[in-house]
Design brief:
Elements (H helix, E strand, L loop, with lengths): L1 H9 L18 H4 L3 H18 L5 H6 L5 H13 L2 H4 L4 E8 L3 E8 L5
């Protein structure tokens, strides 16, 4: 949510903020962190992005619960099973990160391309 309000403050005329009251851009940044109107409004704005970007990788975790290190592989499997090959092959890239015990981390960088 904090990122959404910052995006709104930086570009309040963006089409994704069409339903956001313009007076929210005038709020004190510290007060905006605890303002329930800002919270509800920005959650509504971020919902579509969350659904498209995060949900596809959450199936396995929702079914199995907390898997610690295995959650990284579960997220990758969920992503591959929920996102069509046409979307994956669009030359996109992303990263999947998992932290464990504050000293160990695993990071996958994923890049897709069409096979010839």
């Amino acid at each position: 949510m904090t990122i959404s309000i910052q995006d709104f403050i930086n570009n309040p005329t963006s089409s994704k903020f069409a339903d956001v009251p313009q007076e929210l851009a005038q709020l004190d940044p510290i007060k905006s962190l605890s303002d329930k109107t800002v919270e509800k409004t920005m959650l509504g704005v971020a919902k579509a992005h969350y659904t498209k970007s995060v949900e596809p990788g959450m199936d396995c975790c929702k079914r199995c619960g907390n898997m610690y290190t295995a959650s990284l592989y579960g997220g990758l499997a969920s992503l591959l099973s929920n996102v069509g090959s046409d979307e994956l092959v669009s030359g996109g890239h992303g990263s999947i990160r998992q932290d464990c015990w504050l000293i160990v981390a695993t990071l996958f960088r994923v890049h897709s391309k069409e096979l010839e």
